[in-house]
Amino acid sequence: MSYGQKDNDLLKLAKDIYFADQKTKFTLDHAWCVLRYEKKWLSLNTPKPSGNSKQKETCSQALSCPVGDPEVHPEGIKVAKAKRKNTAPVRSMEECQTVWEMKKDDLLMKEILTNLAILDTLLAKNQPLTEAEEVVKNKLLALYF
Fold first, then answer.
1. What pLDDT is stored for residue 1 in this prediction?
2. 3-state class of 74 per DSSP?
3. Using H for helix, E for strand and C for coil, what is the string for 85-136?
């Protein structure tokens, strides 16, 4: 028996076992041809070395489907995220302080705008102000004017 014939016999035996277990014919030959040479399945499918140095491809012989080089398995999501996390840019102290000063100035401007909006609302009221509203209005007027 030649090396290729042994693979064909093994494939036929595997299909017979599948039929005996599943009570249906194996119909995924095209998927088997593609996945057979994937890295994940390669260790399960590697033929044992024999005396014959010529190796015949079962897939290309028996099923006539294209055989390519095994593809390199892409890195996983966790590995990619870890790489992104570890490559965070290192910032200088001066740069951090500059950003901090800008944020403080921004916060101060937001506070001023909020207070002026409150003052505008209090001044625009047609009805008489409550005692608390009058106190707030006087404080804001003293603070900004």
1. 46
2. coil
3. HHCCCCCCHHHHHHHHHHHHHHHHHHHHHHHHHHHHHHHHCCCCCCHHHHHH
